[in-house]
Design brief:
mainly beta; Glucose Permease (Domain IIA); 7-stranded antiparallel sheet; two-stranded antiparallel sheet; 1 helix; globular
């Protein structure tokens, strides 16, 4: 298995670059972009990629919150990689940067694996939700699917150590508080088995990658 694809450029962050917006689906110019480095953004890949939230109800569609290299923001800027957390802090808050990208969805909707790989961890996440981490077969990066319904992976016979195929259902979106549901999507270096925080004033965690360009690719070209 390749190890982290030599930290492909699309993981370099903290912000994506060269973004164009086409109606509801943003598209990234992915030339010279590491893992997806072929001309016109066509992937160097053996398998189909899948948008992770199989939503028929969400108003967000396949929107990927992001900022381009000229500082323009697309979608909800507070949900992009590298955004300030908390959004409206008070003096007692510990400030941090957003470690992933939030994708719209409705409580209970199915989440599928973007690519084939092995489940390397299940852990508690935020406000009663859970995270499921998959190390991908093709490039070795670990995608963390966060804010999932506790135990929902059992419905799909998924557990730690399970090998899943691209597009296979793995869990359902959870509910935070009374009405907040989304998929918080993170990416990490090969071998990572837990999620990380990124406090302001500290360097980005070495294992953390920026998944924005990957999600932009999947939004435009994924199943």
């Amino acid at each position: 298995m390749p190890l982290d694809a030599a930290a492909p450029a699309w993981t370099a962050g903290p912000y994506s670059d060269a973004v164009r917006q086409h109606k509801d689906t943003p598209f990234a110019e992915l030339n010279q972009c590491g893992l997806f480095g072929a001309a016109y953004g066509m992937p160097i890949t053996r398998e189909q990629h899948y948008w992770p939230v199989r939503s028929l109800q969400s108003k967000y569609g396949r929107g990927v919150p992001c900022r381009d290299n000229k500082g323009r923001t697309y979608g909800n800027g507070t949900r992009r990689f590298g955004a300030q957390r908390p959004v409206d802090p008070d003096p007692a808050d510990i400030l941090r940067w957003h470690c992933g990208v939030d994708l719209g969805g409705v409580h209970g909707e199915t989440v599928v694996a973007c690519q084939s790989g092995t489940v390397v961890e299940l852990q508690t996440f935020h406000l009663g939700t859970w995270a499921l981490m998959i190390q991908n077969d093709e490039h070795g990066l670990v995608f963390s699917y966060n804010e999932l319904e506790k135990g929902s992976w059992g419905e799909f016979a998924v557990a730690k150590g399970t090998h899943v195929s691209a597009g296979q259902p793995i869990a359902r979106l959870g509910l935070m508080g009374k009405n907040s549901s989304m998929l918080h999507f993170e990416a990490y270096q090969t071998g990572t088995k837990r999620t990380y925080n990124w406090p302001q004033g500290e360097t980005r965690p070495e294992r953390l990658r920026d998944p924005t360009k990957y999600l932009l690719y999947v939004a435009a070209w994924g199943a």
